[in-house]
Design goal:
This is WD repeat-containing protein. This protein has about 350 residues and is mainly beta. It is about 10% helix and about 35% strand. The chain has 5 helices and 24 strands. The strands form 8 sheets. It has a 4-stranded antiparallel beta sheet with strand order 3-4-5-6, with no helix packed on it. A 4-stranded antiparallel beta sheet has the order 9-10-11-12, with no helix packed on it. The protein has a 4-stranded antiparallel beta sheet with strand order 13-14-15-16, with no helix packed on it. A hairpin with a 1-residue loop joins strand 18 and strand 19. It is globular. The relative contact order is 0.09. About 15% of the residues have low confidence.
Length: about 350
C-alpha cells in the first residue's frame, strides 16, 4: 500500500478536488454562506425526494452554472487513476470486459449528510460498518461514532483526540495507551469494535462494556500501517481478529486471552485478507498483482526460551518471543494488473472475489 497520504495521491487536480468537495458537501471548509445554505437545505434526501427530481447528493444543480452530466463529463476527462504499476489502467481497459451501462444495480433509499465519515488515506476506506440495518459505526475526524438510520441520532463511542488506554488488567495489554491515534481501518462484529492506526496501533472495545479493553502495537516497523482488520469467531466460540499490515505481516489476535496467537509473513505489504466461512483458508492480497490462498493454521505461534535461572530457588525465567515463517500457500491467485485492496468470500465457502 502506498505510504503517501490522500493529499499526495494526485487522483485529480487539487483545485478540482476542492470544487467537487464544496459542491458535494464533503469539504471541511464550509464557512461560506452559500455552501452552508446548500448543506442545511439538503442534509437529508429520501427516495421520495429523488422521485420528485431532487439530486441524490442534495446538490442544487439548478442554481449552478453547470449541469450534473456536464460536471461528471469534465471530471472524467480530467481524471487520472492512481497506478502502482505504470500503464496498468490502460492495459485493463483492453483486457477487461466492460460493464454494460444503463442497468439498475441498486435502489436508492436515503442519503444523509448529518454524519461525516473521514478518510485519512486515499487507499484505506474500510471505515464504515453497518452491523444491523439500524446500527452504523464510522470514523469522523478523531472520533468513532455510532449512528442510527432509524432515529438519525449519533453518539461518540471512542474519543481518539486525547489519551486512550485500556481499563482491563491483562498481560499483553499496552497500559500506556496511545495519544491522538489516526485510524486507518476499522472493524465491528460480534459486539467487538477494533480500530487500527497508522503506526500499527490496535484499540479494542467491547460494545457492551465500559472503557477500552485492549491496546497493542501490532508492529514497531516504521512502515507499520494497519491496512485491514477482520473479526471472526473460532469453532470454540472465542472471538479473534486478523490484522493486515504494511510491514508484510498478517497477525491473528485472540480476544479471550488478549494476545497474538499467530503470525504470517509475506514478501509484500498485506492490504486485505478474508477468512473463509469454515475458518480454514485465508485469501490474502497486497502490494503485488498476484494474491494467495493460505492455510489459516500454518503461521507460527509463540514460543519461549530460558532467559536466566535463579539458582537458589531453582526457578527458570523464560522470555517469550515470536518466530514467523512464510505460510503454507494453498493456491496462488493471478489475473490482476495492479495491487489489490479488497477480498470477500461467498457464504458457500467455494467462491471468493478480489479487487
Amino acid at each position: 500500500m502506498s505510504q503517501y497520504d490522500g493529499g499526495l495521491a494526485g487522483v485529480y487536480p487539487e483545485e478540482e478536488d476542492d470544487r467537487l468537495a464544496d459542491l458535494a458537501g464533503d469539504s471541511d471548509y464550509e464557512d461560506d454562506e452559500y455552501v452552508q445554505s446548500i448543506s442545511k437545505a439538503s442534509e437529508d434526501t429520501s427516495a421520495m425526494d429523488v422521485l420528485k427530481g431532487k439530486d441524490i447528493q442534495g446538490i442544487p444543480w439548478e442554481r449552478l452554472t453547470i449541469t450534473r452530466d456536464g460536471y461528471r463529463k469534465s471530471r472524467l476527462e480530467g481524471y487520472a487513476n492512481f497506478e502502482n504499476i505504470p500503464n496498468s489502467g490502460q492495459l485493463s481497459e483492453k483486457l477487461c470486459t466492460p460493464v454494460e451501462k444503463g442497468q439498475l444495480y441498486y435502489e436508492f433509499a436515503h442519503n444523509t449528510r448529518s454524519v461525516r465519515p473521514t478518510i485519512f488515506h486515499f487507499q484505506l476506506r474500510n471505515l464504515v460498518w453497518a452491523t444491523t440495518r439500524h446500527d452504523v459505526y464510522l470514523m469522523s475526524h478523531m472520533s468513532v461514532l455510532h449512528w442510527s438510520p432509524l432515529t438519525s441520532e449519533k453518539h461518540e463511542v471512542i474519543d481518539l483526540q486525547g489519551h486512550v488506554a485500556p481499563c482491563v488488567k491483562h498481560e499483553g495489554n499496552f497500559y500506556e495507551g496511545f495519544y491522538r491515534t489516526h485510524v486507518s481501518t476499522l472493524a465491528v462484529k460480534n459486539n467487538l469494535l477494533v480500530a487500527g492506526g497508522f503506526q500499527g496501533e490496535l484499540i479494542c472495545k467491547f460494545l457492551d462494556r465500559e472503557g477500552i479493553s485492549y491496546c497493542s502495537k501490532s508492529t514497531h516497523d516504521d512502515n507499520g500501517i494497519t491496512n485491514c482488520l477482520e473479526i471472526f469467531e473460532k469453532p470454540s466460540g472465542s472471538v479473534h481478529f486478523l490484522a493486515s499490515n504494511n510491514d508484510c505481516g498478517l497477525r491473528d489476535f485472540d480476544m479471550e486471552k488478549f494476545q497474538m496467537c499467530n503470525h504470517f509473513h509475506f514478501d509484500w505489504a498485506v492490504n486485505h485478507t478474508s477468512l473463509s466461512p469454515d475458518g480454514k483458508i485465508i485469501a490474502v492480497v497486497g502490494d503485488n498483482p498476484d494474491g494467495v490462498l493460505v492455510d489459516a493454521s500454518s503461521g507460527k505461534v509463540s514460543t519461549a526460551r530460558p532467559n536466566r535461572r535463579l539458582s537458589n530457588n531453582d526457578i527458570v525465567i523464560y522470555t517469550s518471543f515470536w518466530l514467523f515463517a512464510f505460510p503454507q500457500v494453498i493456491h496462488e491467485l493471478s489475473g490482476h494488473l495492479d495491487y489489490s485492496f479488497a477480498s470477500a468470500w461467498n457464504p458457500d465457502g467455494r467462491t471468493f472475489a478480489t479487487g
